[in-house]
């Protein structure tokens, strides 16, 4: 878990550093130079603008469509992440037994714990780092969206529904919805887990609060992207996990009989 968090933090920090090298006050154009601007910000700005022009200059609707297209492109990775997460939850009892068996903190015992933990992962086909890849792909997209919104005048100055895309939601509706949908998505992901570990329980409540705080301070367009992405994930997670829940119910019924 520590290695997973360490790798994630290091790569996310790298993306933030790359994004930080570009000023949000500098307009993004086809002539913009630099790795971040050329390969992340401008392509997103161009795609959003192109779809908006096809939809009567409706930039809000364009963001909705682009978000769905991005989620569809990431679908194979997200399915892998969901299945890996469920598999990790399923082996938590075995992991707990190993921790109890090798509870001593000396180096030899901890080495045996790591070896048997890896053997358990391999035997169950679980990759503890599988959940990192979708997150690492989504981070540059999220940062790229922010820069594309702030540095493309057409997007920044456009209104959609009750809010302006370039500033935060004045009624805080989107931040609250972003927090609620984040909670629901994680709750559905945890569904069917009899004894979720303390870290999962903590993230279930901390993540939505963090998202609300971020959404309050960021442009409404970014909150819109997050809400649509969450709704997509909720539907996706439901259809991926529902068959497993039905199988579990059938097994439980058979065991009772």
TrEMBL record:
Bilayer topology annotation: Multi-pass membrane protein
- Fetch the CDD domains from UniProt: 5TM_YidC_Alb3 (cd20070)
Signal peptide start and end residues: 1-19
Entry keyword annotation includes Transmembrane: yes
On whether Phosphoprotein is a keyword of this UniProt record, the answer is no
Q: Where in the cell is it found?
A: Cell membrane
- For this UniProt entry, which segments traverse the membrane? 59-79, 128-150, 170-190, 202-218
Keywords in alphabetical order:
Cell membrane, Chaperone, Lipoprotein, Membrane, Palmitate, Protein transport, Signal, Transmembrane, Transmembrane helix, Transport
InterPro entries, A to Z: YidC/ALB3/OXA1/COX18, YidC/Oxa/ALB_C, YidC/YidC1/YidC2_Firmicutes, YidC_ALB_C
Q: What is the top-level taxon of the source organism?
A: Bacteria
Q: Which family does it belong to?
A: Belongs to the OXA1/ALB3/YidC family. Type 2 subfamily.
Among PANTHER family, the record links this protein to: CYTOCHROME C OXIDASE ASSEMBLY PROTEIN COX18, MITOCHONDRIAL, OXA1
Write out the function statement from the record.
Required for the insertion and/or proper folding and/or complex formation of integral membrane proteins into the membrane. Involved in integration of membrane proteins that insert both dependently and independently of the Sec translocase complex, as well as at least some lipoproteins.
Name-wise, this protein is Membrane protein insertase YidC
